[in-house]
Amino acid sequence: MSTIATRLLDNYVGGAWTPAAAATEALDVANPATGEVLARVPLSGRADLDAAVAAARAALPEWRAVSVPERARRLFALREGLSARHEDLARSVTTEMGKTIGDARAEVARMIEMVEAACAIPTTMQGRVLEDVSRGIDAETIRQPVGVCAAIAPFNFPAMVPFWFLPFAIGCGNTFVLKPSEQVPLTQQIAFEVLDAIGLPPGVVNLVNGGREIVEGILEHPGIDAVSFVGSAPVAKLVYEGAARTGKRVQALGGAKNHMVVMPDAVIGRTVDGIVGSAFGAAGQRCMAGSVVVTVGEAHERLMKPLVEATRALHVGDGLTDTTEVGPVVSCAARDRILEWIDRGERDGATVVVDGRAPAGDLAEGGAFVGPTILDGVTPEMAIAREEVFGPVLTIVRAGSLDEATAIVNGSRFGNGTSIFTESGAAVRRYRHEVEAGMVGVNIGVAAPVAFFPFSGWKDSFLGDLHAHGPDAVEFFTKKKTVTSRWLSDGQGHGSYFVER
Ligand code: NAD
After folding, report:
1. Taking the model in full, what pTM does it have?
2. Phi and psi at residue 148, to the nearest 5°
């Protein structure tokens, strides 16, 4: 164990790095490629959360009074600061979460893109006015900050997901409390070093490390006005209900089971690339990962051989090594859960055509590796076709027609993302019209929207009405106030009051 391994992480409260004084426990943060302990994360207590919320509330009047263009300038500085630390952030993501360094760099690029989208706040936060809603009477809607906003993040995007919320929230004049995933708390320490350096008033952004107790504290806290959550479907439901119970504004993004429909006329080479990237990128630990391929008619025969070959050729290893294409999953516990899913799929009657249960390569003994796996002959009723596995496991289901494929996709309780691979515009038109999912890719494997569009999952993949980033972010992080006004003098400056018009 190196000296750095003993580092106990601090919270960031009221503009200063602060020990989690009320923590009674701390967890190891390990590199999933090696098992090496990188640091220890405190499980903060309620008093630590109280301190962060108090700092955020105290900062609210001053921050709200900073002009909107000036708030945008701080976001420009944030963008520059994050860009200067791009590689540090990416290496941190790979080291604590496992995804390949290329994937991590792309994640950080998307994190920075969120800040760029939020820089437009002087335009996007504008209200609307209608003159003469009645004779001599005008109506206008203005937008004001909601107050203290909290975000609770998952492990799979340590850099990006907190930034689906933070830049938009503070750009709109709110103050902010972040609880990162206790599995991957290190990357946000770097992000908060950058935030610390851009001259925000103390208390505008706060970081509280912890787990379930802090989540429950956020939901119950009278000093918090809005909650953004990203994580698994059961916890999303809990957060949605808990926040509603205490009257908070809430958006809760949950789990997923994303289908990729392959039509007989698909361009097979590019389709295989799309499927492989979608299913096995980040070792399948993306909420937009494609985990079920639905082949239509003869697409199955055309697709399977090249898909199996491309999957077998993937190189599993430490994400920091340039040649690695599939890194470890986040922890040994996650690995064991995923292996159990593969066993269960096989027991239920699926055929394991690519078996990643004992991946080859130069893999550290303490690493949490599962190789890319494909199960064919899966039926829509099998648990492996219905539940989120969240690992590098792809299942293949056959359908006879596009309508049958659509019915299979729509039979899922999730509705995050889906893709269709075809050259037929008519098939695409039919599918995008009929499918019950909020994000659709056409000949694209992972159709995660860029920052300027909302991340718009449906069904059990999302609880709430306003989605993350894009125009929805400004809607979520502002309250509307509508003013109806008339003026009773003649406006000539002669003090001729009460002149009827
Ligand atoms: P998770 O639900 O286990 O944890 C998410 C957060 O909730 C963490 O901060 C954790 O501390 C907290 N938490 C966990 N259990 C809790 C409990 N019982 N009570 C209160 N708080 C609790 O999710 P995860 O494993 O970190 O992340 C993976 C999941 O997130 C997957 O299901 C994935 O699909 C989902 N996800 C969804 C999206 C999306 O946009 N819909 C994006 C990324 C990840």
Report:
1. 0.97
2. -95, 120
